[in-house]
Amino acid sequence: MKVVTLGEIMLRLSTPGFTRFVQSQSFDVTYGGGEANVAVALAGYGLESYFVSKLPTHEIGQSAVNHLRRYGVSDRFIVRGGDRVGIYFLETGASQRPSKVIYDRADAAVTTLTPDEIDLEAAMEGARWFHFTGITPALGATARRTVTEAARAAKAAGATVSCDLNFRKKLWTTTEAQATMRPLMEHVDVCIANEEDADKCLGMHAGETDVEGAELDEAGYARLAERLRDTFDFQAVAITLRESHSASDNGWSAMVLGGAGSAAPTPEPVRSRHYDVRLVDRVGGGDSFAGGLIHGLLAEPTAEAALAFAVAASALKQTIPGDANLVSVAEVKKLAGGSGSGRVER
Fold it and tell me: How confident is the model over 296-330, as pLDDT tens digits?
């Protein structure tokens, strides 16, 4: 099955281990970005995965392309041009010290990508699914136009369209986000969000929830899912539920309402199994949920089963360094089926 994502891939420079920016003498290098991470995850599950973007022709741009190729993602629709690969710096927190991200992504090549530079009809031909996030429209007016045209092309080709809202306050304001994201929802079938995303991007509130205090209002989330579905006519809504006990330990679960792809819908909001995760790298955790949900909705018989796959996949990702979720379908299904002891496999 062919799946397509569109967005930015960045150079990630992270401090080794748990060292701070001010003390590190070197950085660990990898690549990542919301839609790129989803593309890698889907390729790992055996799908025909394409990533649409724009990267410079120089060696750093080529290194980003090589990263995608390494994990089985097609670069056929990556436009080559521009001068910069966006960068983000990561300091991994521990216990009561939070992780920190610093962006250096202004004027990245992807911000100049126009719809005319991509053969959107060819990119979406035969695609079962198209995915984007709220990060890409936040990169500027040109990126917003390209995402909109890509979503229209995907719908015209008969693909299911999903969006992970992914609000980033360092990229735009709540007012800008809502002015862009609410109209974009016209093209979206499956909405993925957490409580902040729904509030900042779409103006929908989750109720009495205190993530940092690990207090989740499950009924409030269920009402939020129903309001999102009814307001924007989504086929399915998935909401991730994170309890942030510390930078090292999180609770992780999610909720789904409706269905899409090949999965039979849930008529009422359904919550997944809960995982207590000792974090190795939480960056990319939401992307791994999105990738798992897309695969699940295409491959599992019900939306509830798709949700179980997505939550297990993202729980595993948060134990893996780097942005990408490098797990197999068998590994995810083993955890979703109840095997989470972490015993050595010999």
Answer: 999 999 999 999 999 999 999 999 999 999 999 99
17: left (phi over 0), alpha (psi -120 to 50) or beta: left
pLDDT band at 205 (very low <50, low <70, confident <90, very high): confident
Among residues 107, 151, 111, which one has the least CA distance to residue 5?
Answer: 151
195 in Cβ contact with 163 (< 8 Å): no
> Which residue(s) pair with 102 in the sheet?
89
pLDDT at 216: 75
Residue 268 neighbours by CB under 8 Å, 6+ apart: 222, 257
In angstroms, the CA 153 to CA 187 distance is 10
Those residues with Cβ within 8 angstroms of residue 232's Cβ, 6 or more apart along the chain or in another chain: 185, 186, 188, 191, 202
82: left (phi over 0), alpha (psi -120 to 50) or beta: left
Compute how many other C-beta atoms are within 10 angstroms of the C-beta atom of residue 217: 15
- Are 265 and 303 a contacting pair, CB within 8 Å? yes
- Name every residue whose Cβ is closer than 8 Å to that of residue 270 and which is 6 or more positions away in sequence: 255, 256, 257, 303, 304, 307
> Do residues 7 and 86 lie in contact, with contact meaning Cβ atoms separated by under 8 Å?
no
- Contact between 309 and 292 (Cβ < 8 Å): yes
Pairing of strands 249-258, 266-271: antiparallel
* DSSP string for residues in 109-153: GGGG--GGGS-HHHHHTTEEEEEEETTTGGG-HHHHHHHHHHHHH
Do 293 and 343 contact (CB within 8 A), yes or no?
Answer: no
Q: At what angle do helices 34-44 and 285-299 cross, to 10 degrees?
A: 40
Q: Which residues are catalytic?
A: 287
User: Residue 50 and residue 125: Cα distance in Å, rounded?
Assistant: 12
* Rg (alpha carbons) of the chain, rounded to whole number: 19
Give, as one character, the DSSP assignment of residue 168. Answer: -
From the list 338, 250, 325, 337, the residue with the least C-alpha distance to 294 is 325
- Residue 341 has what pLDDT? 65
pLDDT digits (tens, 9 = 90+) for 153-175: 999 999 999 999 999 999 999 99
